[in-house]
Amino acid sequence: MENINPDLFEPYDRLVSIKIEDEEFQVPENNSILRAFQYVGLNLTHAKLCWNQECENCLFAYTDDKNKEIKRALACQQKTFDGMVITQMPEGIRLRW
Ligand code: FES
To answer: Does ligand 1 come within 6 angstroms of the Cβ of 48?
Structure first.
């Protein structure tokens, strides 16, 4: 976590493991995926985000390690969980540019 105001995060007791593009990251539990992206240092400035369920620009797809069913959700609302595998990033957000 670099240069991010820690007050932006919801309280959390531990980090959980998620995968983004086959790379594993430790991110705070009880926080949205967008906050997790910030936590690992992803650049969100290319995405137009409202952060409150209005724009749907943060739509992403994920699955978990056990049940391979792909689900879609808003990254500003969906909370992190251990074993989450992100299969499609929101428009304008990438692990690497
Ligand atoms: S950021 Fe706008 S709906 Fe999630």
So the answer is: no
